């Protein structure tokens, strides 16, 4: 299907089919996703094969007909000024019915099973391709896969200065690093929610907004792939990935040397928060990493400070002003907070005895949504206000 304009008056004023640029390199499908076969196309071609496509929906300010199909692919960040429009969006459409996928029709048009798995993988391919194309992110292989065991490789997306071919040149770079670790499940590097990728668009389901903010500030970028070997191997995958970047003797300390003194701004979503906290509790090298973390944002983290009673430095760090916990507003029987479902993003979290026993005095705010899968989007400005607060104080030059 060519690069044509599509209109759906019931949905939007103008939509543009995205072009099918080929990525520099693609991350391998998760080894636990047995439904993705080698002969099934991926990315844009895969979506078309299964009867879907992504279309760019213009907001009223950017709805001029001069928006070409090639421009649509870079709609979310101009290469020169890195502007981000919160109202333009890239949504998934069902071709036969010309219907935009959302919460009300997803189960009907994207039935659970093989179709859902294949389409969601193609959507993740496209999100990763956009991150690579727009920010020149490179795929780095941390550990090779094994045909005998059926395990896939462990990989990450990194900015050019952290790619293996540029490590020598980056030895004297001092700019901060933005480290993003997604949660447990089927989401891959650069994807924060597969569900939102399908029903709310690429911007809300991926890390694009956060990468835009990091790129605007000149940060280097590392995006880990915790589910590369399945959701049950997340802890070991994150441990191996962090070791590769921060204290890997296998790489003759080239990577460690290039980033050992650079400030870290970390965002750990869901189970990744628990995995990261446990990693920081394991020896001298992780402790050195902790010293370089200038800001750490937990979004619905699963950690518990009771795990670290015998590690006072880590215990203090996890309750310090360098950390921020963002909690979704969903309610459950164990809560004793009153009417918090309508709390706005960034409002202070009240806490109770149970909460303080688990998280101590960790600064905590509400996400502004009961949706766990949507909180990294709804609270996006809370996250970056927290990062920028320290940056404005000039602390990462110390």
Class by helix and strand content? alpha/beta
C-alpha Rg (nearest Å): 21 Å
How many strands in all?
13
Low-confidence stretches: 1-16, 31-35, 64-83, 394-398
Order of adjacent strands in the largest pleated sheet: 6-7-9-8-10-11-12-13
Percentage of residues in strands: 15-25%
Question: What is the end-to-end distance?
Answer: 54 Å
Question: Secondary-structure element sequence?
Answer: EEHEHEEHHEEEHHHEHHEHHEHEHEHH
What overall form do the CA principal axes indicate?
A: globular
Structural account:
By secondary structure, the protein is α/β, with parallel strands linked by helices. It is globular. Mean pLDDT is 80; it is low at 1-16, 31-35, 64-83 and 394-398. It has helices at 43-49, 69-72, 106-109, 114-135, 194-199, 202-205, 208-216, 234-246, 254-259, 271-280, 284-292, 312-317, 353-359, 375-378, 380-392, and strands spanning 5-6, 15-17, 52-57, 89-94, 99-100, 138-143, 154-158, 177-181, 220-224, 264-269, 293-299, 323-327, 364-366.
């Amino acid at each position: 299907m060519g690069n044509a304009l599509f209109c759906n008056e019931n949905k939007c004023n103008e939509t543009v089919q995205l072009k099918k640029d080929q990525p520099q390199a693609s991350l391998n499908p998760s080894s636990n996703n047995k439904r993705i076969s080698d002969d099934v196309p991926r990315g844009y071609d895969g979506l078309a094969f299964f009867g879907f496509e992504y279309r760019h929906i213009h907001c009223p300010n950017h709805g001029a007909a001069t928006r070409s199909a090639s421009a649509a692919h870079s709609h979310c960040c101009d290469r020169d000024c890195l502007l981000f429009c919160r109202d333009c969006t890239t949504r998934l459409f069902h071709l036969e019915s010309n219907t935009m996928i959302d919460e009300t029709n997803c189960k009907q048009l994207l039935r659970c099973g093989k179709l859902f798995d294949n389409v969601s993988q193609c959507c993740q391919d496209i999100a990763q391709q956009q991150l690579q194309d727009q920010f020149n992110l490179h795929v780095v292989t941390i550990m090779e896969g094994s045909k005998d065991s059926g395990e896939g490789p462990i990989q990450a997306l990194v900015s050019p200065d952290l790619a293996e071919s540029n490590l020598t040149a980056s030895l004297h770079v001092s700019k901060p690093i933005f480290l993003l670790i997604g949660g447990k499940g089927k989401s891959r590097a650069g994807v924060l929610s597969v569900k939102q990728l399908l029903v709310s668009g690429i911007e809300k389901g991926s890390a694009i907004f956060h990468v835009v903010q990091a790129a605007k500030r000149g940060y280097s970028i590392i995006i880990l792939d915790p589910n590369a070997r399945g959701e049950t191997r997340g802890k070991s995958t994150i441990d191996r990935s962090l070791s590769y970047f921060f204290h890997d003797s296998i790489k003759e300390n080239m990577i460690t040397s290039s980033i050992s003194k650079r400030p870290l701004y970390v965002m750990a979503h869901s189970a990744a928060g628990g995995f990261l906290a446990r990693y920081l509790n394991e020896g001298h090298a992780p402790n050195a990493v902790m010293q370089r973390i200038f800001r750490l944002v937990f979004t619905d983290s699963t950690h518990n400070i009771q795990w670290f009673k015998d590690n006072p430095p880590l215990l203090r760090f996890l309750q310090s002003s360098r950390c921020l916990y963002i909690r979704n507003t969903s309610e459950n029987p164990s809560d004793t907070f009153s009417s918090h479902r309508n709390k706005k993003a960034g409002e202070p979290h009240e806490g109770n005895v149970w909460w303080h026993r688990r998280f101590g005095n960790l600064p905590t705010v509400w996400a502004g949504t009961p949706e766990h899968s949507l909180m990294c989007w709804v609270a996006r400005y809370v996250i970056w206000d927290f990062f920028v607060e320290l940056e404005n104080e000039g602390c990462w030059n110390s």
